[in-house]
Design goal:
alpha/beta; about 300 residues; ten-stranded mixed beta sheet; about 35% helix; 10 helices
């Protein structure tokens, strides 16, 4: 399964916590035991044989059934017991997790959060491949076969260097941002598109109002560039005023825009056997929204299925 997922012996071996020669040896032993060739190899590449692809799919099905057995058995111990593999996007993880973990431990002491921080597209792939159980993402996910539970809305704030013309304003509108170059995260981060939408510039990434000289991959890097006077940016609330940095080295102002926030939610596969337990986790967050965010009122049908 690891080799089928990764398409590379080295990466598959790393995932299995073995050396590459050990992985190759074990696959050859499996071929000998089954009496079939699973993989065709040459000096530079490999490919699965038709029977190899079929058996890899069956192996995945077996692993899913074993996981379901473990999940069913753990329900007898009470809700949210044991490991929960949770994906979190990078623009949320460093600010949200230090708040979330103590909250969860206070209510569900026997829950073990196993966190995977990655971009949205990679977390979606991991959900589909049964590598994680759920993910904290920006909603909505268009066209994905998942269930979504909205948790809270996180407003955007403008961050600008001290002395910038926008620093004198109390609030920032889309009109105020016209002609103002912005520092944005590199392509692949969902926050890039959300920031452009909040500014009314979605689809205009090729103009001179987007600074692409710096292809930053973290909000902390963007914050340091703003503090150094290299430009302005939009930050989600928890990144603009995290507890560990009560006084940022730049000026922040609230944003007034039709798209002045992002909605954060909990996402999992439709048919996941512990969906009700994930809903309990979601309810805990909804009832205790993090500072700087806006509550999402619970109502019947709050969990929405995507088709």
């Amino acid at each position: 399964m690891a080799l089928a997922d990764r398409g590379h012996f080295g990466r598959a071996a790393e995932e299995c916590c073995v050396s590459q020669p050990t992985l190759s040896t074990q696959i050859k032993k499996l071929e000998g035991y089954l009496g079939v060739i699973l993989i065709e190899r040459n000096a530079r590449s490999f490919s699965f044989t038709p029977i190899g692809e079929e058996l890899a799919a069956k192996a995945r099905s077996v692993v899913r059934q074993v996981d379901d057995m473990l999940s069913t058995a753990r329900t007898a111990l009470g809700p949210l017991v044991g490991p929960l593999r949770l994906g979190v996007i990078p623009t949320l993880a460093p600010y949200f997790l230090p708040w979330l973990v103590p909250l969860v431990k206070g209510r569900y002491q026997r829950l073990q959060l196993v966190v995977h921080e990655d971009l949205t597209q990679h977390l979606v792939e991991r959900l589909r491949n049964y590598e994680i159980d759920a993910a904290l993402l920006a909603l909505p996910l268009d066209g994905e076969d998942f269930e979504e539970l909205p948790l809270f809305d996180e407003p955007f704030w403008l961050a600008c260097p001290p002395g910038h013309s926008l620093a004198d304003l109390k609030t920032i509108t889309q009109a105020d941002l016209r002609g103002i170059p912005l520092l944005l995260l590199a392509d692949g981060h969902c926050l890039r598109g959300q920031a452009l939408a909040a500014c009314g510039r979605l689809g205009d990434e090729d103009d001179d109002e987007v600074i692409d000289d710096f292809r930053a991959v973290s909000l902390e890097t963007i914050c340091q560039l703003v503090a150094a006077g290299l430009g302005c940016t939009l930050l989600p609330a928890m990144a603009a005023l995290p507890p560990q940095r009560p006084e940022p080295p730049f000026v922040i102002r609230p944003l007034q825009s039709p798209n002045d926030s992002r909605r954060v939610g909990l996402v999992w596969r439709r048919g996941y056997p512990k969906a009700q337990e994930l809903a309990l986790l979601g309810d805990l967050i909804i009832d205790n929204p993090p500072a700087g965010t806006r509550s999402v009122l619970k109502r019947p049908g709050a969990v929405r299925s995507q088709s």
